[in-house]
């Protein structure tokens, strides 16, 4: 089995642990916080200083693949950490759950994570460090930018375009040919019927921009 390190020790790491069972051997875990390791018997190291100590002691450290377990709306952080690990010589690991589906002509970027019962359909294009979470679907000819996270059970219809680092919440539905701008957030259960501007948060059915709180007098 291929040796791999994890960056991130919370919920996303536990999900990926199940997806990688029997495929990769996790040899080290890193997190910015001092947390317990999600892998029995695998040591955890804190921050970049902990990484430096590990790399100085682990024989052939650069041969170890990398998996960044940072989920939620932190796609920019996930992508930045993946690129940092690549700069140290660690190839990003694509996590393709054995019960996920990828069409033969779909393009899957570096370090993507396709979890149980997810589907990436014909002609879809995924950037780097994309998460398609449990039971989510990305239909034909969609284009997802780097660091996108499609939450559990979300549905992207055909030809949807999602900008870098956008987050699509649990159970959201995005209708055909809609564009969601970079850094945008689509709330859980939202039904998106029109384009979403960069950095905008939309909620509801049909989805509308989340009202901004007015400053108190």
UniProtKB/TrEMBL annotation:
Q: Which keywords describe this protein according to UniProt?
A: Acyltransferase, Repeat, Transferase
Q: Matching Gene3D superfamilies, A to Z?
A: Hexapeptide repeat proteins
Cross-referenced SUPFAM superfamilies:
Trimeric LpxA-like enzymes (SSF51161)
Q: Which Pfam families match?
A: Hexapep (PF00132)
Q: Which domain of life is it from?
A: Bacteria
**UniProt cross-references to CDD domains, sorted A to Z:** LbH_AT_putative
UniProt cross-references to NCBIfam families, sorted A to Z: NeuD_NnaD
What is the similarity comment for this entry?
Answer: Belongs to the transferase hexapeptide repeat family.
> What name does this protein carry?
Sugar acetyltransferase
Source organism of the structure: Arenimonas soli
């Amino acid at each position: 089995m291929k040796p791999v390190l994890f960056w991130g020790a919370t919920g996303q790491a536990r999900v990926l642990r199940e997806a990688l069972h029997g495929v990769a051997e996790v040899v080290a875990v890193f997190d910015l916080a001092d947390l317990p390791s999600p892998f029995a018997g695998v040591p955890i190291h804190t921050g970049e200083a902990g990484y430096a100590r590990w790399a100085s002691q682990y024989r052939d450290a650069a041969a170890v693949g990398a998996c960044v377990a940072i989920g939620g709306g932190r796609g920019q952080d996930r992508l930045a950490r993946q690129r940092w690990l690549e700069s140290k010589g660690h190839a990003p690991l694509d996590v393709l759950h054995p019960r996920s589906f990828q069409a033969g002509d779909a393009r899957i970027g570096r370090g993507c994570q396709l979890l149980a019962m997810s589907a990436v359909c014909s002609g879809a294009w995924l950037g780097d460090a994309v998460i398609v979470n449990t039971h989510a679907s990305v239909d034909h000819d969609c284009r997802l930018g780097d660091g996108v996270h499609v939450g559990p059970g979300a549905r992207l219809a055909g030809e949807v375009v999602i900008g870098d680092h956008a987050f699509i919440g649990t159970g959201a539905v995005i209708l055909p040919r809609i564009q969601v701008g970079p850094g945008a957030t689509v709330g859980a259960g939202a039904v998106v019927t029109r384009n979403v501007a960069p950095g905008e948060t939309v909620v509801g059915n049909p989805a509308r921009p989340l009202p901004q709180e007015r400053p108190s007098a």
